[in-house]
Design a protein that fits this description.
mainly alpha; Arp2/3 complex 21 kDa subunit ARPC3; 9 helices; 76% helix; 0% strand; globular
Length: 214
């Protein structure tokens, strides 16, 4: 029994390491897809990170974003435009990167806490419905469960994005020597609608992936 438990724990740890590594790779690739939009580049990072928040456990999500930032800090070209180094983190747009760390931590913990409290998949000790129980659910019950889960995950994505915005706006203001209004209009406002769309798309994709790997 103990041997079986040990093997199960080892398998789970290996799976977590693989998921974290894949997530870091996805974050890097998403950062390389750059569409110029003023002084702040438009990338798919918000999509990739929101996806990670929804799919991974809080520890895995935080480990992934921490690993991503550390790789970038030592010079690996994982940031937007295939850049890397401390200079990027200390530059005008570096606050968004630091904000990713705080945003992921807050959003992942929020999502885990709500899932646990509501007994949703992904929460601690959340009940796992059997195939028969899922089949027995009425269309209305299924729709209600989906909307509840979808809404909570969207809120988590918004929490992450809002924190990244705040950190990015503050650093852009300080490093760029501009006032708050200018920093907001330049570094945040042009991306709000696009980032909201990326959050919704990330949640939809993440739910599909979670359903496939359960």
């Amino acid at each position: 029994m103990e041997s079986t438990k040990t093997r199960s724990e080892a398998t789970q740890r290996t799976r977590s390491v693989v998921f974290v590594g894949l997530t870091i790779a996805i974050m890097a690739v998403s950062a390389w897809v750059v569409v110029p939009l003023g002084p702040i580049p438009f990338t798919l990072q918000m999509f990739a990170i929101t996806f990670a928040i929804v799919v991974l456990s809080p520890k895995e999500a935080i480990a992934a974003i921490t690993g991503y930032l550390l790789l970038g800090a030592v010079g690996v070209p994982v940031f937007s435009g295939m850049r890397g180094g401390i200079g990027v983190l200390a530059g005008p747009t570096g606050g968004f990167l630091w904000g990713y760390l705080f945003g992921v931590a807050a959003a992942a913990l929020f999502l885990h806490a709500v899932r646990t409290r509501l007994g949703m998949a992904g929460g601690k000790n959340a009940p796992r419905l059997t195939r028969a129980e899922k089949t027995a659910m009425t269309p209305l019950q299924r729709a209600g469960a989906f909307l509840r889960s979808f809404g909570v995950e969207i809120i988590a994505g918004i929490i992450f994005t809002a924190i990244a915005y705040v950190c990015g706006c503050v650093q852009y203001m300080v490093v760029g020597h501009v006032d708050l209004a200018t920093a907001f209009l330049t570094a945040v406002a042009p991306f709000m609608v696009v980032d909201l769309c990326k959050i919704v798309a990330a949640v939809i994709c993440a739910d599909a992936v979670r359903a496939a790997v359960r």
